[in-house]
Structures are given as C-alpha cells and as structure tokens.
Amino acid sequence: MNNRCKVCGGVLKQFIDFGKMPLANRFLKSNEFDKEYYFNLAVGLCPICHMVQLINQPNPNLMFNNEYPFFSSSSTIMKTHFSEMVDNVLGFIKPGDFVIEIGSNDGTMLSSFREKGCNVLGIEPSSNVAKVASLKDIPTIVDFFNEYTASYICSEYGKANAIIATNVMCHIPDLNSVLQGVYNLLEDNGVFVFEDPYIVDIIDNVSYDQIYDEHVFLFSISSIHKIISRNGMRLFMVSHQNVHGGSMRYYICKDNRPIHSSINKFINLENILGYNYIDIYNRFAIKVKESSFRFKSILEELKNCGENIVGYAATSKSTTILNYANIDNNLISCIYDTTPEKWYKYTPGTHIQIIPYSKFKKDNPRHSVLFAWNHKKEILEKEKWYSGKFIIPHENI
Ligand code: DWN
Ligand code: SAH
Ligand code: ZN
Predict the structure, then answer these.
(1) Cβ(250) – ligand 2 distance below 6 Å
(2) pTM of this prediction?
(3) Residue among 67, 63, 61, 73 nearest 29 (CA)
(4) Which residues of the chain have pLDDT under 50?
C-alpha cells in the first residue's frame, strides 16, 4: 500500500475501499479463471493538492498491451462528439497544423483531424487498437506517453500546435511526467486540450463504477488548476461535456492568454460544495454501499420471481459494480456486447459470459441491466423496438 499522493507526495486520506478487484478490461477464457490478477481498489483524497486518486494501481503494462478490448469507435455518439471536438480545437489552430493525440486508440479522433487537413500523430501503448489506427493510415507510435517518449517525438517529428487527450490523462499515474512531456512538445503558442470524467458528476450521481484500475485519478478543476500551474502552464478555460456520464474539457496553454470566466465559476462551485474536503467523499462512500445493496436486491427480487436478467454492454465500469456486489452468473445470465474481442469470454472476477450483440434482438430478454448507462440516449434510440425493461445500476439512488 502506497498512501502517498502521486502528484505532490502528500499523505492520502482514504474514503472508500472496494476490496479485492480484478482488472476491469481483462475479459477471460474459461481456462483462465484460476489465474486472475487482483488488486485492492481503494480511493483517497490528497489534503494538499486535492487530487482524488487510487491508493494502489496495477502496473500499466498489465492493462494496456496487445489485448486491450476497448475501441473508441464502439459508440456512435462518441464519434460525433470527437468530430465536434475537432471543430472546436480548430478554432485555436490553422488547417495544416500538427496535432498529436495521447491515447489515440483506434484513430477515431485523428481521422477527423486529418479530414480537416491537419498533420497528425498518435501515441498509443495498446498495440492491437493502435494497429486499427495504422490500418486507417494514421501514423501511430506504440508506446506510453511520458516526458521521455515526448522528447523522442519532439526530436523526430518536431513540436505540436495542438496536443489532445480524451479519457486518458486520468489513466496515467505519473501525471507530472506527462505534463512535462506536453510542455516540451507543445509550440509556445500551441494548445493542450484534454477531457475526462468530472468528479462532481461522479459524486452527484453516485456513479461509483467510474472507479476502476484504469481510472487512477478523478479530476476536479481545482486539482487540475494546481498541477497545470506546477508544471509551468496555464489552464485558461474549461467546458462541461455531456458524455461518459459528465466530463470536463480543460484548455491549457504556455503563453499568457486571458483566463476565461468558466475557471473561477467552477472553482468557486467546487469550493462551495466542499470538493477539497473529505466529508463529501465520506458521504459518497455511504451512498455507494446503499446503491450497491439496492441494485443487488432489485436483481434478487426479480430472480426470486423466476425472471431472467441479462446485461447490455460489457463495459469496464461493470467490473466494479459486479465484483463489489458479488453478482455472478446466478443473477445475470449473460451480457450482450458489440465488441468481437469480448465475445464468448467471461467478465473479470464474476465470470458472466459475453454474447454477440446480434443475439439481443432474437432473445428479446425481459430485463437488461444497462451497463453502458453513459450511452443511454444512443442505446434507447437504437433499441426503440425493445419490449423488455432496462435497469440502470445506480439510477434512483
Ligand atoms: O475511460 C475509458 C472509456 C473511455 O472507455 C476506458 N478506461 C475504457 C472504456 O470504458 P467502458 O468500457 O466503460 O466504455 P463504454 O464506452 O461505456 O462501453 C464500451 C463497451 O460497451 C464496449 O464493449 C462496447 C459496448 N457497447 C455495446 O455493446 N453497445 C457500447 C455501445 C454504445 C452499444 O450500443
Ligand atoms: N482516447 C480514447 C481512448 C480512451 S481509453 C477515447 O477517448 O475513446 C484509454 C486509452 O489510453 C487506451 O487506448 C490506452 O491504451 C491509452 N493509454 C493508457 N496509458 C497511456 C499513456 N501513458 N500514454 C498514451 N496512451 C495511454
Ligand atoms: Zn497531492
């Protein structure tokens, strides 16, 4: 156990312990059940820099390798979101400029940048997803981004006019190294734009399933503001985004552009709501227990009435929900998912089988747990025909 803050070295105040957890995206074959990797999933607040973070996290090589099963293109709404983000970033740079994406995955966002005439480069450690990007002719370096890979990129490709990172900054334990890399790789008048799930949405909605091995940090604007200044840059604007259950987009520069009013607005809000103090997180921990208990009771009541319950989308998030509540294939018979890499494998720790999505319509199950609740709008639209009932894990709490 290392209870020191990964950002400033402060002693973390732990507020929740989910116990033993497997890796959220390590879907298994049946002959792998007895060699699963577990770690202790617990979260703390740093009283000095206010960064909320995992107390322990598995080695990144265990999670991001040649078998990473998440593809950014798996959601239509996210594809639209990324293409809108490209237009937004183009407001800060010129066509033809050089854009680098950290955690470029299957190249979904860089494809849009390239369509708009930018030169692009991705850096992505999971070689199987990077390969999909390379097949789309998106130049991709297969490696972890940090200050060392940044200096290699700088010498080989030159500085970037924009650096982009979505749903990846919160995955990287050595944030100071990443930010030093960004600083050195960014042109003096360039912009660094990143977005990640926002802590206020997570706490407000009790969406505790956003906490798993890959999500090392839960960012607040106050904590990001501090770490960006610490690394010699300026957070000049933020903008709330309605994706992945509520995200925040951060705009950062090296020059002295004016600071937009959104920064003070959100920092004041976080202060008033108490996001820099432990009490709000202790209350969250109690709600998480209640939510998990209530969710399992709903499933048990249905099961006792002889109902069949399935899952919809084998998300990373579902690993926390299922393992924390100890829900296995006695309660959820299978999970339908669109990702071929997950089909006929089993969920980490709880061993529920994943079935091709195409069977969902044929089976028309009466009760489906919507594990991809963050894509509810897209999914309800797609499944208008569905006569069964969707259960959302932490709704009504
Ligand atoms: O931060 C992360 C986010 C961006 O993506 C990563 N650490 C891992 C991943 O998290 P997730 O797995 O919880 O992501 P999603 O986008 O909520 O869920 C993706 C899964 O859901 C895929 O297996 C595909 C599946 N899915 C489906 O079966 N039908 C998704 C949609 C939209 C659908 O209609
Ligand atoms: N940006 C995409 C993918 C998010 S999933 C999106 O928003 O949909 C997180 C991605 O970050 C994975 O593809 C993972 O392999 C990658 N990643 C993890 N650590 C990284 C690091 N240190 N540098 C670059 N990418 C990293
Ligand atoms: Zn700290």
Answers:
(1) no
(2) 0.98
(3) 67
(4) 397
